Amino acid sequence: MLFSMMPCGCENSAETSSAEAAKPAAAVEKSTEPAIAAHDVASATTPVVIPDKVVVYYFHGDYRCPTCTKMEALADKTIKERFAAELASGKLEWKVVNVDLEENKHFSKDYQLYTKSLIVSAVKGDAQIKWKNCEKIWAHVRNPPEYEDYVYDEIKAFLSGV
């Protein structure tokens, strides 16, 4: 119960340590990049892989404070209004995930989650190519236009390669 044991994170400082890149059904490589950077799963010698789609996750636990619910609602609004065509075509997927459910607990380790989080992930076939924890949602949550612009920019950057 990752989120149940920790404070909800509304006082989150948006600081974190290095993270590991998550890749379904494959080995995880250590990253030396800060957590706010995109995490490439492939090594430096691997040819550039063009993703098929981008998946945006909002991760939460059983306990949901008003700020955490607001972050999900603002992300949902931004994605559905600004990326309607990409959602319809399948180039973009939007998933809200409760990591306190047994079948979703692996996400906490995969993305080293410590609070409610918005993750943008580039996927090719069944393999994740890179991902980014959009930690600045915490800095922008009290200013919805800034929050929406931040979420839009992060997703757009990942979609540029699809």
Provide a concise account of the structure shown.
With 162 residues, the protein is α+β, with helices and mostly antiparallel strands. Helices cover 32% and strands 20% of the residues.
Judged by helices, strands and strand pairing, the structural class is alpha+beta
State the oligomer: single chain
CATH superfamily: Glutaredoxin
User: Mind telling me the C-alpha Rg?
Assistant: 15 Å
CATH topology: Glutaredoxin
Order of helices and strands: HEEHHEHEEHH
Would you report the number of β strands? 5
Fill in the keyword field for this structure:
disordered N terminus, 5 strands, Glutaredoxin, 32% helix, alpha+beta, 5-stranded mixed sheet, 162 residues
Q: What do these coordinates show?
A:
This protein has 162 residues and is α+β, with helices and mostly antiparallel strands. The protein has a single domain (17-35, 50-159), classed as Glutaredoxin, CATH 3.40.30.10. Helix content is 32%, strand content 20%. It has six helices and five strands, in the order αββααβαββαα. Strands 1-5-4-2-3 form a five-stranded mixed beta sheet. A hairpin with a 2-residue loop joins strand 4 (117-124) and strand 5. Helix 2 (66-82) packs across helix 6 (144-159). The N and C termini lie far apart (35 Å).
Set down the secondary structure blueprint.
Layout: H1 2-5, E1 39-40, E2 53-60, H2 66-82, H3 84-89, E3 92-98, H4 106-110, E4 117-124, E5 127-133, H5 137-140, H6 144-159
Parallel strand pairs: 2-3
Antiparallel strand pairs: 1-5, 2-4, 4-5
